[in-house]
Amino acid sequence: MKILTTRMEAHPSDSHTIERYVATDGYKAARKAILDMSPGECHEEVKASNIRGRGGAGFPCGVKWGFLPPDVRPRYLVINGDESEPGTFKDRQLLERDPHQVIEGIIISAYAIDCNQAFIYIRGEYPKPARRIEQALAEAYDAGYLGKNIFGSGFDLEVTLHLGGGAYICGEETALLNSLEGKRGEPRIKPPFPAVEGLYGKPTIVNNVETISNMPWIVTNGGAAYAAIGPEGSVGTRMFSLSGHVRKPGNYEIVMGMTFREFIEDYGGGVPGDRAVKCFIPGGASAPWFTGDQLDLPITIDDVGNAGSMLGSGAIVVMDETTNVVEAAHSIVSFFAHESCGQCTPCREGTSWLEMVLARILRGQGRPVDLELLLDVSDNIAPGLGWPPKMTTICPLGPSAVSPVTSILRHFRDEVEAMIPAGGPHG
Amino acid sequence: MWIDEKLVPPMTWTTSDRVERILSSYPDRKSAVMPLLYVAMAEYGYVTDEAIREVAGLVGMTSVQVSSVATFYTMYKREELGKYLLSVCTSISCSLLGGRDVLHAVEDETGVPAGETGPERDFSVEHVECIGACGGAPAVQVNYELIEGVGPDKARELVRWLRHAAPAVVRGDEMQTLFGGQRSFDWGPSEAAGATGPLPSLGSIGTMGESK
Amino acid sequence: MGDPVKVTIDGTEHEVDGGTLLIQAAQDAGTYIPRFCWHKRMKPVGMCRMCLVEVDTGRGPMLTTSCTTPCSDGMVVDTKSDIVTKAQEGILEFLLINHPLDCPVCDRGGECPLQDQTMAYGPGESRFVEEKRHYEKPIDISELVLLDRERCILCARCTRFSDEISGDPLIEFQDRGNGTQVLTFPDEPFKSYFSGNTVQICPVGALTARPYRFRARPWDLEAVEATCPHCSVGCRINVQSSQNQVLRFLGVDNEPTNQGWLCDKGRFGFEYIGSPDRLTTPLVRGEGGELEETTWAAALQVVAQWLQDVIAEDGPDSVAGLGGARGTNEDAYAFGKLLRAVIGTNNLDAQLEDGLNPQFLAAATPRASIPDLDAAQTILLWGPDLKEELPVLYLRVRQAAQNGANLIVIHPRRTGLHDVATATVAYAPGRGPEILDRLRSGTGDLAAARKLLMGGGPIVGLIGRPGLTEDPMLAEAVAAFVRDLPDAKIMPLARRSNLFGALDMGLAPSLLPGRAAIASPEARSALAVEWATPIPEATGRDAAGIIAGLADGTLRSLFLFGADPIRDFPDQAAARAALEAANLVVAVDQFLTDSSRLADVVFPAEGFTEVEGTVTNLEGRVQKVARLVAGPGQSRPPWAIFEDIAAAVGSSLGAVSAASIHKEIAQVAPAYRGLSWEQLELGPGREGVIVPGETGEQPLRYVPVDIGIAPRAARLALHSARTLYDDGVHVRFSRSLAQLTAEPFAFVNPEDGARLGIAAGSLVRVTGSSGAADLEVQHDPGLAAGAVYVPFNLEETVGIGDGLDVKLEVIS
């Protein structure tokens, strides 16, 4: 069953054009929503769909829309296209190959939440997706699907494309709002949540590109139909980005419930050379790692959560038996150290400290005490080292940097120890 | 003596229609600081002190506030760049598939270490974090136009081609055909648009070029 | 704040106002939660993470920053759990991994929150063996402030202050993550009038002040509380000294006045106290025409003899007194008593150039206080540029506007408040009456302002003279208008130091001590009883009248008490002529100024930090100042000098100490009745007491009048106003500030510049009513059309005068 990728697979040569979009029932859902349904009815369908956010947090979308205070205007809708979680590239495909689907989802959502101004925030390193969206917006405006008095209904909607400047942290919704306001992309203290106090202090809904792309189908077929797809708690279809040591990396839209093993082998073609899976990351670089022991875990939000990790952004990275796990962990920790916004002490100082210690171990200058040091520094960022993490930080970036550290020390401690010279760094 | 009104001398780029459009597309003009930094960067080649002062005058912030925003992000470069900015991804998926080797190959072939610009201003080289091309690892961008599945040898060929063919507009489709391999997904039809400099190529900020 | 709620902190239940920040509630309840980035006067940001506690609101304990958590009912808080304690240790270890071990060479050592909290909550050792962050250190970010980025813990207190509080965001974070650093922009240094506050609130030694660097260790310092002597806001300060040298002023958090902040002129304006140019002995002009050192006895004898001759020949009315705004209330009272009771004249004026009706300044009703700004719905500011003249009041108005008050600013030039104002109107000086007419009728450019004022109260009018060329009665007319608005109060504005205290002590031609009018027979007879001597009946001459009288010979002698009319009186030539013509000029001063060096007898005075007493600010709030150091050489308190002069002519003021004078004031001056020093030192009186208070009364309740001034149009109208750093005596002799004295420029609007062919950078001769000056031109788009702005009281500009019309000729 596919929802999001049907058009681009059936019509690869022009799925991004308005001509193809309209010819394949495009903008009919928006028309149905605006002309035949009330905003409340649209909201009810989304609630009934039980769709959970596809950006990484997995919060039920309809419930989030319900947090908007009834009497405060204006409201804003912001689409989060800042996809930067290592391993993730699904929103890129949706933006590039079916931009009108995103736009129609925006129209429906804005109508449902009584909002007349939306922003699409696309990371700066995605100029091609941004060009596709820019072109699609122009086409939609020309055709009257955006702007004033859409379908003659009196509903107005302006959509502004905003290009990021290169900062992973802007994918965090409040950091994104700060970035949109012209400030540094630093996360805000929550509460208040964006639905209550968001862009320019006004009620704002931030939704992921993939989440919003589902709205036309939900309006067309009804929320109950969406909720009937897949296992409870992980309904609908979902795009997973598969990468690393697999024969066929790529984006795969699946119904959840199959095991990781099935996914990796049936969709990903298995590991090149049929080597064993040493470990894999189930949900983007922030997620704690799984080993071969979890290959038979079903791919659902709750199964993965109960096993101590998260499905997050839906990015699965496979590492085979040739992988130097310390290097891999250092690569991820290094990522978070670079991307730390710098506001709060434990993340700003701690992620760099973790990176420096791992780098030193990789250089052959590790000390036996460094293992406990890594864990204790990690504990000072994410007390208890659990997942979901307790945080001493403002946002989960700090604890995300801890994931690879705890993962290698839990599952591959002997490999780390092997990199440490017996007599300490000086022999 | 405290004069808190900034005198911005009339410059063509700050009074253009494009700038007006950008300013009016946000409820608060401070939001325009990011796209205006790109427009200024296109004007000067990189984000100069003057560019920051001018953007500050347009959005109603102080220079140090605009600089604070500009330096927070990686893509607003505060130093002059080479004609081609080569960004090599070294995040986890690319790193598992040899991204570091690609970086070393690029450094070696260009003669420019990562984080620097060559003395002839032909190339700037940097390692970058995940650019969303993990399905086509290892991945490289030239002026933010993507090539997927670029191994070390192909990366060297890419550099040599840039040096000798010296295209005015850098197009992802063209480079992918010449030097790319595994893609994250089917790219669909090729496009004429490409980059004219070390900036993301987008119509609304005036950085888009086209070629066949 | 909301309704009371119950929160449990470490097992003990407390009742607090709902919405109070948990960190504040805990502190009030006696539980200190460590912190760096939180400052009670700024919005909390939860960045340093040091204030983490476990909070349970019903769903289990959650680790959260107490500075960003408002108290809610039933909240259970643990500030000492194992998780919290470990987190505190962890945060400190994180802060210390890059923080350099600079304590032995760092100004902050001994009064350092990072040191203190590390001792109390931190690990004993750091486990960091990698390379620390390095920066060039320190760097100058302005003439007054240095930045050491290695020490910086990135709490953002300094950047938040500059953005949120002072509106001068000239420092900001650059880069991100571990490479984040505070910095200025190239060629745009941290030239804020409030930069010193960032040094005070920096929790480490990252920001240091040049005037204090390496001067002392906190354990060497002695301290007293006092009130800043520079302007009439009366900020509360902590004065610190070592070995009889004043080394530092710090801001004290006095809720109704400065809330902890100081302007840099106040903060660093202490160096003059220890200046080698301070007068140390009495001086008398000798035969050769030079001032020569002499003894007290000799100098007093000269004064006594001369005074007796003058009074015998020309009568007491030929004597005048100028000044008194730079001393304490006790000094001013003694000065007034000397002139009125001993000599017998009403020719005294503490104002030099402000020219406002002293009854308006001292006794206008209903009078606003500074806290009234916090509650105001609409604030009308028509007066001086607060940022230049009353900087900490500017901060308070700015805060009120940012918190939602409507702010209307009417001024010839763009001010520091324009960016937070709701309505602004610029006008060329002289045209003020037209503006007031349109404000009354709510027409044209004043329609929006009028609408705001009619939108309901409370309304506060901050009213004064925007510049020296404005008719001073215009301010009163504006006050008359505002006063009639519903729920409105007015705050008359004048800048100098203890002017309001001096006026309350009767240093004005129409006032008697305690806000009584000379014109009132009851007031005169009551004072006559207290002073056991008749009080002269006729209203005396004001400063302009005194200068004119001295010049034309109708007045013969002049007492100058901390006054420099040659620099401060708008007609410099007239002031000089007056001093030169006078028969006897006696100066009581701290320095030889342009005026006191023309005196016949000069007495060296002790001044601020060397005297004990009270001062009164522009709210009428009386605060106590304390003595910390002794004045140089033979300098003595002014009141004692006046007592000695009285004694030398066979009389007495009855003063034996500043305390005894104060007791007399509390008995004699109606508005000050019942006020005691003890009241001002302990309990709620430490915030200052607004007189008349409960025990005093104010016989004169002055209702501002609108005399109907005609507008004046000039081809080019001179806007002559103050800039904060000028060539005043205290700035001149404080070397850290003297280097900041403004450059003399003449400003014109760019359109006027184009129209008149006056390019920026050209040299023009500015000719005013009293003289001319050659100045470089700058273009100022924020200046009203038809106006020329020249800052007053710079050496080069002080001679131009206060006439409205001014001529500009391009010289080159």
Strand order of the largest sheet of chain C: 15-14-27-26-25-16-17
Distance between the termini of chain A: 59 Å
Q: Calculate Rg of chain C over CA atoms.
A: 28 Å
What is the CATH C-level name of the largest domain in chain A? Alpha Beta
Explained architecture:
The complex is a heterotrimer of chains A (427), B (212) and C (812). Chain A is an alpha/beta fold. Chain A folds into 3 domains: 6-227, NADH-ubiquinone oxidoreductase 51kDa subunit (Rossmann fold), CATH 3.40.50.11540; 237-320, Ubiquitin-like (UB roll) (Roll), CATH 3.10.20.600; 325-418, de novo design (two linked rop proteins), CATH 1.20.1440. Chain A has helices spanning 6-10, 18-23, 28-36, 39-49, 61-65, 90-97, 99-112, 127-142, 173-180, 209-213, 215-221, 223-227, 260-267, 301-306, 325-339, 345-362, 369-381, 397-411, 413-418, and strands spanning 76-81, 117-122, 147-150, 155-163, 204-208, 237-244, 250-255, 277-281, 290-291, 315-320. Chain A has a 5-stranded mixed beta sheet with strand order 3-4-2-1-5, with helices on both faces. In chain A, helix 3 (28-36) runs parallel beside helix 7, helix 16 (345-362) runs antiparallel to helix 17 and helix 16 packs parallel to helix 18 (397-411). The N and C termini of chain A lie far apart (59 Å). The model of chain A has no long low-confidence stretch (mean pLDDT 97). With 212 residues, chain B is an alpha+beta fold. Chain B has 2 domains: 13-72, Orthogonal Bundle (Arc Repressor Mutant, subunit A); 84-210, 3-Layer(aba) Sandwich (Glutaredoxin), CATH 3.40.30. Chain B has 8 helices and 7 strands, in the order ααααβααββββααββ. In chain B, strands 2-3-1-4-5 form a 5-stranded mixed beta sheet. In chain B, a hairpin with a 2-residue loop joins strand 4 (140-142) and strand 5. In chain B, helix 2 runs antiparallel to helix 3 and helix 6 runs parallel beside helix 7. Chain B is globular and about 50 Å long. Mean pLDDT of chain B is 94; it is low at 1-6. Chain C is α/β, with parallel strands linked by helices and 812 residues long. Among the domains of chain C are: 4-80, Ubiquitin-like (UB roll); 283-289 and 296-353 and 499-680, Rossmann fold; 359-492, 3-Layer(aba) Sandwich (Dimethylsulfoxide Reductase, domain 2); 717-810, Barwin-like endoglucanases, CATH 2.40.40.20. Chain C is built from 26 helices and 36 strands. A 7-stranded mixed beta sheet of chain C has the order 15-14-27-26-25-16-17, with helices on both faces. A 6-stranded mixed beta sheet of chain C has the order 31-35-32-34-33-36. In chain C, strand 28 (613-616) and strand 29 (621-625) form a beta hairpin. In chain C, helix 13 (432-441) packs parallel to helix 15 (472-483). Chain C is globular. The model of chain C has no long low-confidence stretch (mean pLDDT 96). The A-C interface holds A 167, 184, 189, 337-346, 348-353, 356-357, 360, 373, 379-381, 383-384, 390-394 and C 44-50, 52, 63, 65, 68, 83, 86-87, 89-91, 93-95, 97-98, 127-128, 130-131, 153-154, 156, 173, 175-180.
